[in-house]
Amino acid sequence: MNRSTVVRPGHAEDLPAILSIEAQCGSVTWSPDGFHTTLSDETTWSLVATAPDNTVRGFILAQVAADECTVHTIGVLPSCQRHGIGTMLLNGLIMHAERLGCAMMFLEVRSKKYGRTVLLSLPLDLPPAEKGKGITATTMMMQSS
Questions:
Q1: Strand 104-111 vs strand 68-76: parallel, antiparallel, or unpaired?
Q2: Residue-wise pLDDT tens digits, 119-141
Q3: How far apart are CA 57 and CA 89, in angstroms?
Q4: Of 18-27, 73-82, 101-110, 126-135, which gets the smallest average pLDDT?
Q5: Distance of alpha carbon 62 from its chain centroid, rounded?
Q6: Which residues sit opposite 138 in a β-bridge?
Q7: Inter-CA distances, 66 with 73, 98, 104, 129, 141, Å
Q8: Which residues pair with 50 in a beta bridge?
Q9: Do residues 59 and 39 lie in contact, with contact meaning Cβ atoms separated by under 8 Å?
């Protein structure tokens, strides 16, 4: 884990950094207006991971509806990947979703390489013995694209 990284709620002023990270990750799927609209939606939750100088290193955007949380997008600067930042962001989101009473979290992963979509689902009501054992997701379904 990267101890110098702080995870905090994302704000509209983080949008330029979020867009830059998404572009550097090669996964530009939303327009700047789409991001701005999503960040302004009261059902959307965003977190950013920052360096000590407040430089954004990563982000996660999710939406809560009823008792479900859906991760829309997550990204970490390529130079900061493989240092636990994505895990920190996901864990922060899981804690927030649990506080809101969410029972499930979903993340859809699209793979051009394999031409399919994988839907990952995390039950947020894990038995106490399973929490903290590194359980992050289970594959629930595969769909053809």
A1: parallel
A2: 555 555 544 444 444 444 444 43
A3: 11
A4: 126-135
A5: 6
A6: 121
A7: 19, 12, 10, 26, 21
A8: 6, 56
A9: no
Residue type, 122: L
Q: Answer with the residue of higher pLDDT: 102 or 17.
A: 17
Q: CA 40 from chain center: how many Å?
A: 17
Q: Which element (helix H / strand E) includes 59? A: strand 56-65
Is residue 117 exposed (0-12), middle (13-18) or buried (19+ Cβ within 10 Å)?
Answer: middle
CB 83 within 8 A of CB 2: yes
Domains of the chain: 6-105 (3.40.630.30)
The set of residues, in sequence order, having a beta carbon less than 8 Å from that of 145 and lying 6+ positions away, is 110, 115, 116, 117
| Sign for the pseudo-dihedral over CA of 51, 56, 89, 13 | positive
The tokens describing 36, both together, are 């701005």
Q: Which amino acid is located at 5 in the chain?
A: T
**Which residues, including other chains, have CB under 8 Å from residue 29's CB and lie 6 or more apart?**
22, 73
The two tokens of residue 82 are 């493989």
Tokens matching residue 2: 């990267």
